[in-house]
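does this look right to u?? magnesium ion version
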Amino acid sequence: MDTIQSITTYCLSIPREVPYMGALGKGDTQGTNGLFIRGGNRSVYSTSDHCVLVRIETKSGAIGWGECVAVVAPQVAASAIESLIQPLLLGRDPHDVIAIGEDLYDSMRVRGFFGGFWGDAMAAVDIALWDLKGKLSGQSIAQLLGGKRTKRIPAYISGLPENTMEKRAALAVGWQQKGFKAFKFPAALNPQGFVDEIAGLRAALGPEAMLLCDMHWRNTAGAAVQLIRRMEPFNLAVAEAPVAPEDIPGQAHVRRSVDTPVAIGEELRTVFEYRPRFEAGCMDIVQPEMGRTGLSQFWLICQMARAWNCEVMPHASIGIGIFQAASLQVAAAISNCPIHEYQHSIFDKNLHLVTGDMACSEGYFHVPTGAGLGVEPTAEALSYALKLN
Ligand code: MG
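got this back:
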């Protein structure tokens, strides 16, 4: 029997010229150590791209790679892997990915660790084990999940980081000319801004473009309903995160009250967090983030979505492309994923940090080929590892 022999973590910090979602502006608050708060959604970000990589090696010499979201403080998830997960996993059979995932979840659940940094740590390890499982069997993860339905997945342009409507419209038109048909704009700072934004984009992109709005959890349910109704004359395709993530009754109220499909879920990590939202009828679309859920939970969330007749539009966050590849592998294996988020300002910048043929062009993600994930970090990627001791 092959066994897990070593687990190594890397906290990557990759410099970027302009912070994610654009330059700091009015309402943003700068902290120290590269951290700042976006006034628009009250969330903390870093001026550099951070993520955590995990490398798992087996006794036979097989290597699997995983990655989790770590927008800030990557040391936290890395430390959980090194101090807690590694001692529990050494010597186990690398094929036992589901059993290992359940055991890790159970090991901390009654202490109140249901997600958060702990969930992120488990996600990175879970992805690495699926990569190993694929490599050991010579199959892609999509094949392991039951069948690769497609080689390419439609992609929507996420975010238009310019500071005027004119420039944002021009940016969107530029992507449209490259073959992209769907565009998501983030919450504006004032309510009228939403309507101005969708009106400007609709005028620039024409009647066929798919327009999605990320409302960034900012509104009460009543205010969200009002705003969505004002955007509906411009043929809004998706209203994302209309109310606070904890407000399950509010999510359900919004979904019942508007014609636009409602999407939620990028912040949720497990089926336990999704379950009450499905039961309450909170959404038409789920947006699991692979870098937070890991592959096993992501897959289960997709199956729950199928049972509740919801679509899956996976979220895409900051990373070098390892969890992005895992997300594409699942998206290629399920029947209810019409489109995947494309964070062009991250994906394009970091794509050279992974091997393989993963790409996004002419409106589509190209699912990486090869066994396991189909991507691995390059030596340059590992050169961005923080020295922690
Ligand atoms: Mg979002």
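The chain has two domains: 4-138, 144-373. idk if thats expected tbh
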